[in-house]
Design brief:
about 55% helix; 6 helices; Arc Repressor Mutant, subunit A; two-stranded antiparallel sheet
Length: about 140
Amino acid sequence: MRSDSRLSRMLHVLIHMDAHAGRATSDAIAHMLSTNPVVVRRTMAGLRDAGYVQSEKGHGGGWVLARPLSEISLLDIHRALGSPSVFAIGISSDHAGCLIERAVNVELGGALRQAEELLLERFGSVTLADLAKSAVP
């Protein structure tokens, strides 16, 4: 299963946007991420809809932050991206009638829920400003 790097990539982009004056075009962001501007626009649209960035079309347009980094947490961006699964590990339902599979699924499911709750709690306690501070030597 492929890993979903959208959270990491968007955190990277947002911190760069804060550090540079002016608007960031979809083309410039796409170049930074080695991707297509359409992918950038689609991803940034979710962040815009959640109120973390703003956009303007046309000449001189582009993306800007709508809030200071100190008001945006990792959890905020995770949610704006659609709350993607944080684990590639999953449970099997190939043999729903098997007592062993059921026992395995109950234990794994509980452990995964508990781990996800802990991770998301941590995401909520870290702002993008915290990340930006740790990136500066």
